[in-house]
Amino acid sequence: MIKITFCCTGTEPAPWLAGLRAALPQAQVELWQPGTTPADYAVVWAPPQQFFDEQPKLKGIFNIGAGVDALLRLRLPPQAAVVRLEDAGMAVQMAEYVSQAVIRNFRDLETYAADARAGHWTYYKPRQRNEFSVGVMGLGVLGARVAQALTHFEFPVNGWSRSSKALGGVRHFVGAAQFHDFLANSRVLVNLLPLTPETVNILNRDTLSRLQPGGYVINVARGAHLVDEDLLELIKSCHLSGATLDVFRTEPLRPEHPFWREPKITLTPHTSARTLRADSIAQIADKIAALGRGEKIAGIVDAARGY
Amino acid sequence: MIKITFCCTGTEPAPWLAGLRAALPQAQVELWQPGTTPADYAVVWAPPQQFFDEQPKLKGIFNIGAGVDALLRLRLPPQAAVVRLEDAGMAVQMAEYVSQAVIRNFRDLETYAADARAGHWTYYKPRQRNEFSVGVMGLGVLGARVAQALTHFEFPVNGWSRSSKALGGVRHFVGAAQFHDFLANSRVLVNLLPLTPETVNILNRDTLSRLQPGGYVINVARGAHLVDEDLLELIKSCHLSGATLDVFRTEPLRPEHPFWREPKITLTPHTSARTLRADSIAQIADKIAALGRGEKIAGIVDAARGY
To answer: Does any domain span residue B306?
Structure first.
């Protein structure tokens, strides 16, 4: 009998266990406890190192999120495939979160909201849509869906990724050679990159200065992509008009962090694309069943590449 | 020589006159002054009655907005066709304004924003998208574009209009007979109806009570569609979770109006879809040229119907 162990920090286990058991009635699904017998598959979020030290025969590790940067910093059983959630309801959430952030910057809706709180009825001149380019960094499942949503609203959309992709309506820039060109052609920057040694601190004074004047930063990937002080300085000097941030170097964001008090920063508590239990369970169950039939599955992480 | 007269309240005339002259070099384009000679075509926004009393030979009246309710209350030269702006850059603006309002309600982003201002890091349970139906009242050029944008974000979308329409991915309800059914199947209500004697006060205690619990109202059509006190009562009794309002019975909204002080109401100063000068001039010039060639044009208002 296939054994599946569940170890997800900050997640109520009962509904996940019930859902996995219903979806995989042939399997034994158990909540991990230190010292239990090794399992064949693991469903994890931010597990302790001890968890993997006790799992010598794992064939697959299912991460219930899109980013595996924290997981890859642990010592994992070398034979185990690391599998990311793919979409599972996250792509549409990311598209709607980023779209509303872009629209609110383009349409001055934060200014209108502040005016309304102050009882002011004031018009602002509409911006030119054709001069309002949005650059999307990272064109995986989430980035591609975000880019597609933005083209639907007729923004000029640029995409930047390591390898070449063809996305309708998106001007594509590839690799390090075209990165500065991508930045210089973008006014709003949306970060959806995986966090790897190559991308840590990629949003810094040098790169953010290359955005068009009035630039705006939307970070929905990882806090460690962004150099916090550099963003704050570029907002204070008015090169950037502001930022929407959903991820932070330390989460929860510490009470003394200046992001809380910068009115041009809109922040949310890592909620841009939440893991949806039913969709995730269905995806994991399908993949475990496929592996059992000896089939290939999508979403396996390349540990050397880091995503 | 064709003579065009321009009379738009609250609009800086110089760039419009220059644009119309450049687009219609054969025509004489003049700013209206009381007592000038009658013109062939008029480009108007909220003109005085005197303007039309002095225009016995007008062939066409071009309204630089989508709604003609105020215009149709004036005595117009009976032979003149009244022409509305069609789209001219307004449809995508309306789609983005409504989309962000729906997304912010669905994703609790107003609550997250209030939390951020208070320095709180708190998660809320995501809502079920398949239980979050959006009903769009009015499926003209703007309403159809809004409905299309919402289907892109995978919301269940209902549409209600007087005559039958086929819109992909939209569940359609037709006429008075299906109005209550439409309301009972909708959680968010988006109003994009023309203002006519049949639709004045259509958003009232009876109709809004029929929305699903937690209902939300987005009014981007006309203030007179909504009975203000009924909305406030249904918000206070928590049947409705709030509203986004861009239009009001009196604009600017009077300082003493309770909408300013209701935290569950987001209000903007009639800015959801602004008239874009270049797009509008191009559309008007094309239509005047087509009329000159004896061709039919789209966007002519049916005065009996009111839109």
So the answer is: no
